[in-house]
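Record 1 of the preview.
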Amino acid sequence: MEEQAVINNKSIKKLIITCNNEQDKLNFASSSMSLEMEDEVINNNLDRFEKCSVNLNFYPAELCEVSFGRKNVNIYGFLESS
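->
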């Protein structure tokens, strides 16, 4: 069973990740969430995901720090095998 993320009692049905090469940002609109990251952050995480697929260890869990409105928020990854 998959758990849906919820913000302000609204389900998030889609996550969009884009490269902006500026400040990392998190935005929420209707039922989608967009995560804008610098290319360096994206490439670093892709390398980490690739290593994780071999050694099954994703540490540290922090993916990035983003601005969300007027707050800074840390985004963490949790990976599990099925």
